[in-house]
Each structure stands twice: as structure tokens, then as C-alpha cells.
Design a protein that fits this description.
heterodimer; A: alpha/beta; Rossmann fold; Alpha-Beta Plaits; six-stranded mixed sheet; 12 helices; B: mainly alpha
């Protein structure tokens, strides 16, 4: 049995938008799985289906062994869901927030107090537990949210962009918590994020989704290796013979992939130190002058961009407008 | 069955939030206070008219049940607005992914709204008594407040229905204001039914508010008679049962759609 398993899962909205398109993923028990993709790629829709908030249009999804469409209640008893935006009740104290969550999750009265104390310890909020949550900082709120998701000791914990909008210190702290939770409770964690570094640090496996479709699934290391171990980036003085140069470089044995952006050329390779002299040789034979050159290691950012492209999303503008309207509404309220 | 504890969980949360909003409690009393003080004195000279249809007290005593109902109507019909907040700020999703049933969420909200409505109305009743409104027997306060609680449950149903189907605050307030004022006006809250033009009196008799106002007025003046009270209770109960049922159904259906 997998912690999460989907088979050709699809969701088509009334507007005709195919938000999720035959997504098949498998999440082993005890694994931290990263779900990555640009804005509007279908991450949120997938998570909403897996947490029983939306019904799939077609395909199957099982969470903790239960079908999300027909055994929603059993799924709900076995998951924790930490949403992207904070869901704490600001007028309630930290403890009351957890108390509410514990009641919602049917945690028996006799173990409720003990469990809440334990969670408060893990998220390091014991000393502020009796203050109204409105006085909490962004990081404390997020910790409280994560604590709420842990209360029922779920088999699968869904974390939707857990470090969005947090400062670097808090982000590192949250990563620590996620690791601690994972080690202590052996939970399976389904994580969505925009931060490649986060996925790289935490996840055993990641899937990259774009336009509703899974582009690739593998471990962060394997994904980076697939691009080659190293990247050579160089700039040339004129773009006239650019294509010729690129096709020559592509013929070289150690080269995995080449991409260009104006006069800047990026070469993914298995052996950068051997490649650099070869590049100079090719360039000089074509009478091209190299302005600058550097050698780096690929990051997950490179993996992400190589699978999803560099173009901004078509619906990016629309998305922003919606966000903006929402923000305005909050200000007015 | 976990329906009862689940309903209580939501009720508990709503009451916690109410208790923490002390300023709101007082602000919401200003409007009914103005009604009772300003309107009550403005129309004091209509006393002979009211006496002509058999009401022996002053005008303020006549309209006090109306203002209690005004408080009940508006507290409960506005009460569902936090459903919209809950959906926008994610509490709703938190509740929806927990094992709590959808109808428990709706019921918990409605119960909390009607209890809050009763608390607010009891303050207005206290204010009326302080202003010299005479009631037949102090013990009728309890059946009066019970009537308010039951009646408010029906109106909280309306509020939850509108909130669950609205996508924005603007829609919610538009619809609620459109519903609230006419329901209050088309009742004997401020003026006796017997003195209304017959078509208005007819419309008022279709309005459940009418029966709640009449019932409370009869209790306050100590003129309770079996048959009218039975009719009034039947209408109010029927209204409440229908509204609560529709609200649970609509709420369950709407929250399963993307917001």
C-alpha cells in the first residue's frame, strides 16, 4: 500500500479548464514527496482532490489506502492538511486553536490535553500558548498551523507551500520541524513548494507538474544528474554564428544539453573542465570571441526550468489580478 | 454518531469568537436602543389608536416586543457572514478535511447564532424594562427568550443559506439587507395589524416574524390564549424546521464546490 497513489487522475472545471490531466503518482510510506510546478500548474487542484475538498472528474486517487471519492471520511481521519494561507483563529489563543483542531479531529478527551502539550513542545510555542494568536509573528502562526496538522498523528501530512512568505531564519526552522516530524512520527509527507532549495533539502522524490501534466518524477539527485554534473555558461561577442557554434558543441561527447538566451549559452555536461578548452577551440575556429565563461553545478532550479521552460505562464497576468483583488478585499475588511 | 459532539465543536468555536469581540456586543445594541428610545417616543401620541384595538399600555410597551424581534432578526440574519470569512481564510477547508460532517458545521453555526441573538435580545429586553416597560410577570422572560432562540434559529438558517451561496461580501450584504428590513416592517412590530390596509395585513400574515411578535407581545401583556398561541407556535416551528433543513442541505452542497 502506498501513502498516496493516483491513477490517471483528472479534474476539468466547469469553465472547461483541464487543471489536472491524467496525473499518476505514487508516494511510498514514510517518504517526503515534493510536488513542484509553476503557478497554475495544477498543484492546488491536486492537493484539494487528495484532501477530499474536490471530487476528481476521472481517474482514481487513494490516500492511506482509502479512495478519496468513495471513502472520504476514512481519508479525512488519516490526513493532516496544512494550508498555504494561515487558518488560525486570531482571537483564540494558540492553545485554543489546537483545542479546536483536536475536537474537529475527534481526538478523545482523555488524551487531548497531553497531545496538545506535546505538540506545543514540538513547535516551541509552550511559553506563548495562552496568548491570543493575533499577537503571533508570521513564523509562529505557521508553526501553529503545522502543529494543528500534526494533532491527529496523521498517516499522510499535506504541506502546501509551508514556507511561503517567511524569512530565511524562519524557513530554516520550519525545515527543521518538518524533518523532526518526519523522523519522529514516520509520517509520509506530501509537500508542494516553489522553492527548489526546499525540495532539494527535504524530499526523497519529486514530481514536476506543468499544465496539469506530470513532466518527470525522480529523486532530486537523479534529476540533477540527468542534466549532467556540471554546467558551463559563457557569453560570446556576436550572435551571427551562434547556431553553428551550438550545433558543433552539441556534437561533443560530454555534452548533455545546450540552451541559449541571446548571446549567453548554457551547456549541461558531465565534465566541465574538459569541455571548456573544447569550447574555446570551436569558438576560435569559427572566429567567435568568448567574453566570459563560468563553471557551476546544476541546481533544482535548472531542472525545473528545463522541464517547464522559461516563459512566464500565459495566465500569469490573470492570476495576479485575482490575487490583487483578494488583497484589496482583505484591506477593505 | 458524532453529529452532536461535532455540532458542539463548531458551536464552541463560534461562542469563543463571540466572547472575544466585546466591542461588537455593545455596538450591535446601539441600533435597537435608538429604535426603542427615538421611535418609542416619536410615536408616543399614537396611544389612542393602539388602545382602540384593545392594547392598554403605552406605545413603548407596544413596540418593545417589536424591537426585541428587530434585535433577533438582525443579529441572526447577519450572523452567517463569518461563513464567508471562514471560506476565504481557510478555516472552512480545515473543518472540511476533518472527519466532522458538513451538516454539523452548518448546525453548529446556526445554534451559535441563535444563542448569540438571544443574548443580544435579552440585553434589549433588560433595557426596555429599565425604560419602564411593564410586563405581566417577571417569569415570562424565560418563555420570551426561548421564543427568540427558536425563532433566531430559523433566521440564522436564512443567513447561512445566503452566505453559502454568495461568493462575495457585497452579494451577501445586498441580499441580507433586501430581506431583513421588509421582514421586520411587514409585521405588527411597530403598528397593530388591525390598523393596516387589508393588503398589507394580508402580506404581514404570511410573514413568520408576525407570529413571533404577536406571541412575545401576548406573553408580555399576560393575554395568552391557547388557540392563538398554538397557531403562532406551529407557524414558528414550521418555519424553523424548514429553514434549518434547507440551510443544512444548501450548505453541504455549496461547500463541496470550489470557492
Amino acid at each position: 500500500m502506498y501513502a498516496v497513489e493516483t491513477d490517471k487522475l483528472s479534474k476539468v472545471y466547469h469553465s472547461g479548464l483541464k487543471a489536472v490531466d491524467e496525473v499518476s503518482i505514487k508516494l511510498e510510506n514514510g517518504e517526503i514527496f515534493g510536488f513542484l510546478g509553476p503557478n497554475g500548474a495544477g498543484k492546488s487542484t491536486t492537493i484539494m482532490i487528495l484532501t477530499t475538498l474536490l471530487k476528481p472528474t476521472s481517474g482514481k486517487a487513494f490516500v492511506a489506502g482509502f479512495d478519496v471519492a468513495t471513502q472520504a471520511k476514512s481519508v479525512r481521519q488519516n490526513i493532516g492538511y496544512v494550508q498555504q494561507d494561515s487558518t488560525i483563529d486570531e482571537y483564540l489563543t494558540g492553545r485554543e486553536n489546537l483545542e479546536l483542531q483536536a475536537r474537529l479531529n475527534h481526538i478523545p478527551k482523555d488524551i487531548r490535553t497531553k497531545r496538545i502539550d506535546e505538540i506545543l513542545g514540538i513547535i516551541e510555542l509552550s511559553d506563548r500558548q495562552n496568548e491570543a494568536a493575533v499577537t503571533y509573528s508570521g513564523g509562529m502562526r505557521k508553526r501553529l498551523d503545522i502543529g494543528g496538522g500534526l494533532l491527529n498523528m496523521p498517516k499522510v501530512l499535506f504541506l502546501d507551500e509551508p514556507t511561503l512568505g517567511l524569512d530565511i531564519q524562519t524557513r530554516y526552522k520550519i525545515w527543521e520541524y518538518i524533518k523532526k516530524i518526519h523522523d519522529e512520527f514516520e509520517m509520509s509527507i506530501f509537500l508542494t513548494t516553489h522553492y527548489m532549495e526546499e525540495a532539494d533539502k527535504l524530499c526523497n522524490n519529486i514530481s514536476i507538474i506543468d499544465n496539469g501534466k506530470i513532466k518527470i518524477t525522480d529523486s532530486p539527485k537523479a534529476l540533477k544528474n540527468a542534466l549532467g554534473n556540471e554546467i558551463v555558461i559563457f557569453e560570446i561577442n556576436s550572435e551571427i554564428k551562434l547556431e553553428q557554434l551550438v550545433s558543433e558543441i552539441k556534437k561533443l561527447a560530454t555534452v548533455k544539453d545546450v540552451s541559449t538566451n541571446g548571446s549567453i549559452i548554457t551547456v549541461f555536461t558531465t565534465s566541465g573542465d574538459q569541455l571548456i578548452p573544447q569550447i574555446f577551440q570551436q569558438a576560435s575556429s569559427l572566429e567567435i570571441k568568448i567574453e566570459s565563461i563560468s563553471l557551476t553545478k546544476p541546481t533544482l532550479d535548472d531542472v525545473f526550468l528545463s522541464h517547464t521552460g522559461r516563459a512566464l505562464r500565459e495566465d500569469e497576468g490573470k492570476y495576479d489580478k485575482k490575487k490583487m483583488r483578494e488583497r484589496m478585499r482583505r484591506i477593505r475588511a | 454518531m458524532t453529529m452532536l459532539p461535532d455540532t458542539y465543536t463548531i458551536f464552541w468555536r463560534e461562542m469563543k469568537r463571540y466572547k472575544k469581540s466585546r466591542s461588537g456586543i455593545l455596538i450591535r445594541l446601539i441600533q435597537p436602543a435608538i429604535w426603542i428610545i427615538v421611535m418609542g417616543n416619536t410615536f408616543a401620541s399614537t396611544r389612542p389608536l393602539i388602545q382602540s384595538v384593545g392594547f392598554s399600555g403605552t406605545y413603548i410597551e407596544f413596540m418593545a416586543p417589536g424591537v426585541i424581534m428587530l434585535t433577533a432578526i438582525f443579529t441572526s440574519i447577519f450572523g452567517g457572514v463569518n461563513t464567508l470569512w471562514d471560506r476565504r481564510y481557510g478555516f472552512m477547508n480545515k473543518a472540511l478535511v476533518s472527519p466532522v460532517s458538513r451538516s454539523s458545521i452548518a448546525l453548529g453555526k446556526m445554534l451559535a447564532i441563535s444563542v448569540i441573538s438571544t443574548l443580544q435580545s435579552s440585553l434589549i429586553l433588560g433595557m426596555a424594562l429599565a425604560l419602564g416597560v411593564h410586563i405581566s410577570n417577571l417569569l415570562v422572560i424565560f418563555p420570551i427568550l426561548l421564543t427568540v432562540t427558536i425563532f433566531s434559529l430559523g433566521f440564522s438558517g436564512i443567513s447561512v443559506i445566503v452566505a453559502a451561496t454568495s461568493k462575495s461580501q457585497e452579494t451577501f450584504w445586498g441580499v441580507i439587507n433586501f430581506l431583513g428590513m421588509p421582514l421586520f416592517m411587514l409585521s405588527p412590530a411597530l403598528f397593530p395589524l388591525e390598523l393596516l390596509p387589508s393588503w398589507l395585513a394580508f402580506v404581514a400574515r404570511l410573514n413568520p416574524v408576525t407570529y413571533a411578535v404577536l406571541l412575545i407581545r401576548q406573553m408580555m401583556t399576560g393575554t395568552v390564549q391557547i388557540l392563538p398561541v398554538a397557531i403562532e407556535l406551529a407557524v414558528i416551528t414550521g418555519f424553523v424546521v424548514i429553514m434549518v433543513a434547507i440551510a443544512s442541505y444548501v450548505f453541504t452542497r455549496e461547500v463541496n464546490k470550489p470557492f
